[in-house]
Amino acid sequence: MNTWHKVSTVDEIPPLGARVVTTAQGDIALFRTADNEIFALRDKCPHKGGPLSQGIVFGKKVACPLHNWNISLEDGNAVAPDVGCARAYPVKIEEGVVYLGMVEMAEVN
């Protein structure tokens, strides 16, 4: 079950750009498309771990800044012929505020 966390406003994410949110589960990049859609992916390319947040956003994809792999913002999958996946996170927007859906990790004793 997702727990929703307020992480940003839409205006804090540059159009065709990204903003990084640091969480207990690692850095997550929030991306904003030209159509003002917001997506969230782990800020790590599945190829060599490059920071996706520093890539170029086009359409509903981001190009990794290291080796130009194209990653789908919708599901985190690399675009063929490349293979791999950056974890995608659910987002919702309410009154201009961006909420990130995180699965809470159970504590292990």
Cα radius of gyration in angstroms: 14 Å
Task: Write down the domain tally.
Answer: 1
Q: Look at the structure and name the CATH superfamily.
A: Rieske [2Fe-2S] iron-sulphur domain
| Class by SSE composition | mainly beta
Got a strand count? 10
The pLDDT mean sits at 92
CATH class: Mainly Beta
Q: Residue ranges: pLDDT <50 for 5 or more in a row? A: 105-109
Strand order of the largest sheet: 2-3-4-8
Secondary-structure blueprint of this entry?
Elements: E1 2-9, E2 17-23, E3 26-32, E4 38-42, E5 56-58, E6 61-63, E7 70-72, E8 88-89, E9 91-94, E10 97-103
Would you summarize the structure shown here?
The chain has 109 residues and is mainly beta.
Give an overview in words.
This protein is mainly β and 109 residues long. It has a single domain, classed as Rieske [2Fe-2S] iron-sulphur domain (Rieske Iron-sulfur Protein, 3-layer Sandwich). It has no helices and 10 strands. It has strands spanning 2-9, 17-23, 26-32, 38-42, 56-58, 61-63, 70-72, 88-89, 91-94, 97-103. A 4-stranded antiparallel beta sheet has the order 2-3-4-8, with no helix packed on it. It has a 3-stranded antiparallel beta sheet with strand order 1-10-9, with no helix packed on it. A 3-stranded antiparallel beta sheet has the order 5-6-7, with no helix packed on it. A hairpin with a 2-residue loop joins strand 9 and strand 10. The two termini are 21 Å apart. Mean pLDDT is 92; it is low at 105-109.
